[in-house]
Amino acid sequence: MSVVLEVKQLTTNFNLRDGAARAVDHVSFSLEQGECLGIVGESGCGKSTTGLSLMRLLPPVGHVVDGQVLLNGKDLLTLSEHEMRMVRGHEMAMVFQDPMTSLNPTMTIGRQVAEPLEVHLGASKRAAMARALEVLELVGLPNPRDRLNDYPHQLSGGLRQRVVIATALALEPKVLIADEPTTALDVTIQAQILDLLDRLRAELSMAVILVTHDMGVIAERTDRVVVMYAGRAVEISESTDLFRRTRHPYAKALLRAIPRLDDDRRERLYVIPGRPPNLSNEIVGCSFAPRCERARDDCQIKEPELLPMEPSHFAACFHPVLDDLVSSQEVVGRRDVSGMDIPRDPTKAKVEIATSDPHGQEAKSAVLLAVNHLTKEFPVGSGSFLRRNAETLKAVSDVSFAIREGETFGLVGESGCGKTTLGRLVVALDRPTSGSIDYDGADIGSLRGATLRNKRRDMQLVFQDPYASLDPRMRIGSILKESFEVQGIGTRAQQWARINSLVHEVGLNQKALEMYPHEFSGGQRQRIGLARALSLNPRLVVADEPVSALDVSIQAQILNLMKYLQRKHKLTYLIISHDLAVVRYVANTIGVMYLGKLVEVGPSFAIYNRPAHPYTSSLLAAIPIPDPDVRFREGVPHLKGELPSAIFPPSGCRFRTRCPLAEPVCAEEEPPLRVFGPGHAAACHRPLVPSTNDEPPAGVHVSIATRAT
Fold it and tell me: What is the C-alpha separation between 670 and 380, in angstroms, rounded?
């Protein structure tokens, strides 16, 4: 195939207060027609900046200072701004990471997709809207004609991303740059978006640059890959070669940091030691040398060149990884690779687990939290003055489970299934419509005033977006001190002593107390969120998507930290996530939610090895696998369609409208709860494995989450 894009020695600087930071450092690669090229690396490695440099959409402080960007032989860096406007969208387009910030909240979907056609081609409004409808159909937007007059806030995250892709494709560009297009989406919607990009690439012969930190996505979806570190391309190869014959130690480290479904939960996740370099400082030698276990003296002196290790496989390393090297498991066993700046007990190689295991051993701790027939509905629509005729959104519907003290309960499901609402109910930020939440013998829903405030000390919430949950006008020390002041706990000296201890525990230094939230990375802000949650010595911590927006290395640090803190403080966790690989690593028990219902619950090993509900199996099938030899998981195909409305949920089984095994009975009757092993139950008419009993024993709806009754 012909080369449509050739990047030569691209170099981009950011002019900051403390000097120029080289965000992209002499990066070169090519892109062929119909090819998907992945760019992968940690946050801050230059992936997104490379895409923005190609489009010439850098912020005012950013400047391309060297190199060429040849699109069909035309150097984009030499064009005037007027000429470049005609290239953007028409010949090369970009899909940005957050679809909500890419869409104008004051414009309808139809107008936003039609606008490029009017600007670039001078199309009439009628013709532009007709093309908009055509493109929305192309990207698989449900009921596209009805959606033309919708606004962005009326769509789910997956639908908004489809609209952004439709806008980018309206003028049929030759190259599409997709910058983390699925980072904030759950696994099923992520699979749909990536399937869409694959289909469009084949149908339109379009070349795609896929920017991501997900090595599973790289393995499944890309033809070639560029691994970036500190602004430099350190390895370039075909995707299959990268996974089979990794040459650069950094690429090897990224692969080792991925949580896998077959990981031993008792082992710490591998973390790349140290931190990426400050790009404002001059880097002498190999930029990865301070973090590399293979570094030698020559790595500190000279920068390695990107040279061929074999045909079509390039790496910039003086001491590359070879096939006969010691295995990664042996390396991990010999040295401390946790990357955590917190005290550790070196005598313990494994993380203690207090739960049932595959051999039937049971924990004996008491139940700390019992959720019984919990329901939460929100009134929507106009209705009468007394709201008698108002419609209700059924966020949580008759959910029951229990968590034993010291255990971790993982709650998984698609966006909009009610996970976050349930978490807010547990920590008493919302009140249930019906049902009870028994925490340590007290019904949280019935408490009021000072009694509720005192009980809330024991229950803390770690929010999904650590930046949005931290006051940007307050220093970190003041943020952590606030909880002591509100609760009237301790003297000033005692408060600061506790704050200093918290900062040390979560792996930050004392300088952090004088800094503001915007001065930290995403992983550091999540550490601050954990410190704030621990300030009042809680027994229960609800963590809502604690690592969803973090790259694999930082994600591993936070998961290791959470396990360390749980062991030290005897914490009980309720972890909400759409990443099943993450939940499998941290959770003793897993509950699967769909449209407000808990459809399956059981020990983590049972959920992953013998899923009973088709929805659980579909979630597992959608997980990207970091292995190019397994492009797609065998068995259940990717889940299709969108989550139905929680205002008008389907009759009978709520999953039936998307279930490949649905039968007439699924529409007529709500499925009964069946038992499939110790502590394992699911509500399904057509389970994937045989049940042990036709009916669950009495009371199993309450205690099945932690043990059989």
Answer: 25
What is 270-326 written as a DSSP string?
A: P---S----TTSPP-S-TTGGG-TT--GGGGTSPPP-EEEETTEEE--SS---TTSP
Radius of gyration of the chain (CA): 26
Counting residues of the chain whose pLDDT is more than 70, the rounded percentage is 88
* Residue 552 to residues 248, 269, 335, Cα–Cα distance (Å): 17, 10, 20
Q: Are 654 and 598 in contact (CB under 8 A)?
A: no
3-state secondary structure of 594: strand
Residue with the two structure tokens 């650069």:
248
Query: What is the number of residues in the chain?
Result: 709
Residues paired with residue 225 on neighbouring β-strands, in sequence order: 38, 237
The conformation of residue 671, written as its DSSP 8-state character, comes to P
Q: Which residues pair with 307 in a beta bridge?
A: 315
Residues forming a β-bridge with 367:
404
Residue 335 has pLDDT above 50, yes or no: no
Q: SS3 for 565-579, per residue? A: HHHHHCCEEEEEECC
**Number of DSSP helices (H) and strands (E) in the chain, helices first:** 23, 24
The C-alpha atoms of residue 441 and residue 426 are separated, in whole angstroms, by 14
How far, in Å, CA of 172 to CA of 169, rounded? 5
Alpha-carbon span 530 to 44, nearest angstrom: 23
Q: What are residue 147's phi and psi, to 5 degrees?
A: -85, -10
What tokens appear for 708 in the block? 């059989």
3-class DSSP assignment, residue 16: strand
Q: Are 39 and 10 in contact (CB under 8 A)?
A: no
Q: What is the largest CA-CA distance in the chain?
A: 78
Q: What's the CA gap between 552 and 581, in Å, rounded? A: 12
Q: What are phi and psi of 66, to 5 degrees?
A: -165, 160
Say if CB 252 and CB 328 are below 8 A apart: yes
Helices 125-138 and 109-121: crossing angle, nearest 10°? 120
β-strands 232-238, 224-229 pairing: antiparallel
Name the residue type at position 656: R
Helix axes 492-505, 476-487, angle to 10 degrees: 130
pLDDT at 342: 33
Residues 6+ apart with CB under 8 A from 287: 229, 230, 231, 232, 277, 303
3 state SS of 121: helix
Distance CA 615, CA 656 (A): 10
Question: Can you read off the two tokens belonging to residue 72?
Answer: 């069909």
In this predicted model, which residue has the larger pLDDT, 330 or 69? 69
> For residue 207, what is the DSSP state?
E
DSSP line for 188-228: HHHHHHHHHHHHHHHHHT-EEEEEES-HHHHHHH-SEEEEE
pLDDT at position 697 over 50: no
CA 382, 385, 386: angle at the middle one, nearest 5?
105
Beta carbons of 64 and 10 less than 8 angstroms apart: yes
What 8-state DSSP symbol labels residue 262? T
Q: What does the alpha-carbon distance between residue 695 and residue 674 come to, in Å, rounded to a whole number? A: 6
- Going by the DSSP 8-state scheme, the letter that residue 657 receives in this structure is G
Strand-strand pairing, 313-315 and 232-238: antiparallel
* Residue position matching structure tokens 């993380």: 351
Residue bearing tokens 């990884």: 321
pLDDT-derived band at 184 (thresholds 50, 70, 90) equals low
DSSP characters over 515-542:
S-GGGS-HHHHHHHHHHHHHTT--SEEE
**The two structure tokens encoding residue 559:** 């998961």
Report which DSSP code applies to 634: S
Sheet containing strand 74-75, strands side by side: 19-32, 3-16, 62-71, 74-75
Residues 521, 44: contact at Cβ < 8 Å? yes
Per-chain mean pLDDT for the chain: 84
Nearest to 316 by CA among 245, 220, 248: 248
Torsions phi, psi for 658 (to 5 deg): -120, 0
